């Protein structure tokens, strides 16, 4: 009897312990193998260093726009300082300091009549603008294809606000007059909708993709990458049927359970971002998981359509509702740091730039295009040493186009251009000789 009573006491004790554990919420089982909803951002210096250069590029583009908006493409430095403070929120003397730090893009000189400092763009900077304009003009057919695929992502309406497209036209390589040169020039592909009439404001207009039953179903960029992977690896790539290329940033800690969660997520089927899912039953847990992965595919395809495979988080947010993206975009992207990278460099951390990780290697775009190469020339000019500036300044002194340079200037070697007699590298002699 004593042994029976002892057994009963132990059983009641264990049951009480289990009950208290269930009440307190403690569960003795393995950790969840699902991707956490909130993850800390791990920095990738390759992308952040690229954004440090982009900070200079954005400032240079804004100042270029102010300079070119004036007759003759030049204006006094004091006037530029005033405009930059008023319209660009520059600090006092910030614009002038930026001009002097980048003499390969901006030429600062003393006006021969007014005897005050003026500025205008150097021939190399003007040439870069012409090359970029020519590259965009020559790529109009591919730009039309990108715009149509962008509209097809907005199922089931297949329409987007004209103003949102206009704000993102630089990222997608669209010309400034894309409404006329692309939308209205291709009535079989696009339709311009204006509920308030043809004279309505741009924010009230929509661009819609014209349905075409003969058009093949669009194939997303990640699906083409999987096809190439399957052809190269054969049967070994069977597990990559629904997988995304993943490259975690340096220092990203991958635990055992997180690795299992990613493995399961990579094999989860999902619907194509171009597929209309409005008629599907999305109430089940499996359907919600597929829709979450479909949102990843939508953002992946969105970035793949951009010229440089990156854009700002604010640009993506403009298309969020039309393309069925989640409301908390930043948290959603941080869940998938192996696919996307968010850089906060620029504008005191208020600007968030989203990169497609697989498209870059050590901060360099892998698949370059003509528009990207043209824009890359401006970055190279901003990074060039100010010591070798005489050649640009002399060409600017001879005229905006630099025409007749070889006829009006005696032949000199490169060393004479880039260094004066005392070896100081000053360009004062060039200015006094060639500015009329």
From TrEMBL:
Signal sequence range: none
GO molecular function: RNA binding
InterPro entries assigned to the protein according to its UniProt record, in alphabetical order: PORR_domain (IPR021099), PORR_fam (IPR045040)
UniProt cross-references to Pfam families, sorted A to Z: PORR
Disordered: annotated segments: 416-436
Species this protein is from: Platanthera zijinensis
Protein name (record): PORR domain-containing protein
PORR domain ranges (all copies): 42-385
């Amino acid at each position: 009897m004593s042994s029976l009573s002892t057994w009963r006491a132990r059983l009641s004790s264990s049951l009480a312990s289990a009950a208290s554990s269930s009440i307190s919420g403690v569960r003795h089982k393995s950790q969840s193998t699902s991707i956490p909803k909130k993850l800390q951002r791990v920095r990738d210096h390759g992308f952040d260093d690229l954004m440090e250069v982009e900070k200079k590029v954005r400032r240079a583009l804004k100042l270029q726009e102010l300079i070119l908006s004036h007759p003759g493409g030049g204006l006094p430095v004091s006037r530029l300082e005033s405009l930059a403070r008023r319209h660009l929120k520059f600090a006092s003397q910030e614009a002038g300091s930026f001009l002097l730090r980048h003499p390969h893009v901006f030429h600062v000189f003393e006006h021969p009549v007014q005897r005050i400092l003026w500025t205008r763009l150097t021939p190399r900077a003007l040439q870069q603008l012409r090359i970029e304009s020519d590259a965009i003009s020559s790529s109009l057919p591919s730009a039309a294809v990108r715009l149509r695929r962008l509209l097809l992502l907005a199922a089931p309406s297949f329409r987007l606000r004209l103003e949102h497209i206009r704000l993102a036209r630089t990222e997608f390589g669209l010309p400034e007059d894309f409404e006329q040169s692309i939308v209205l020039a291709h009535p079989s592909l696009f339709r311009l909708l204006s509920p308030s009439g043809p004279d309505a404001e741009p924010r009230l207009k929509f661009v819609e993709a014209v349905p075409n039953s003969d058009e093949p179903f669009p194939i997303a960029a990640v699906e083409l990458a999987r096809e190439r992977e399957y052809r190269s690896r054969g049967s070994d790539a069977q597990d990559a049927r629904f997988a995304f290329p993943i490259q975690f940033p340096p220092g990203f800690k991958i635990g055992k359970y997180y690795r299992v969660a990613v493995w399961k997520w990579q094999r989860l089927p999902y619907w194509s971002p171009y597929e209309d899912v409005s008629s599907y039953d999305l109430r089940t847990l499996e359907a919600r998981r597929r829709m979450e992965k479909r949102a990843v595919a939508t953002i992946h395809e969105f970035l793949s359509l951009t010229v440089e495979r990156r854009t700002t988080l604010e640009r993506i947010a403009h298309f969020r509702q039309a393309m069925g993206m989640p409301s908390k975009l930043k948290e959603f992207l941080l869940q998938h740091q192996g696919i996307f990278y968010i850089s906060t460099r620029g504008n005191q951390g208020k600007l968030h730039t989203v990169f497609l990780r697989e498209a870059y290697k050590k901060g360099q775009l892998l698949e370059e295009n003509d528009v990207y190469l043209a824009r890359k020339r401006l970055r190279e000019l901003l990074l060039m040493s100010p010591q070798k500036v005489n050649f640009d300044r002399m060409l600017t002194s001879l005229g905006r186009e630099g025409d007749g340079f070889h006829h009006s200037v005696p032949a000199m070697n490169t060393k004479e251009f880039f260094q004066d007699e005392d070896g100081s590298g000053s360009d004062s002699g060039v200015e006094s000789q060639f500015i009329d």
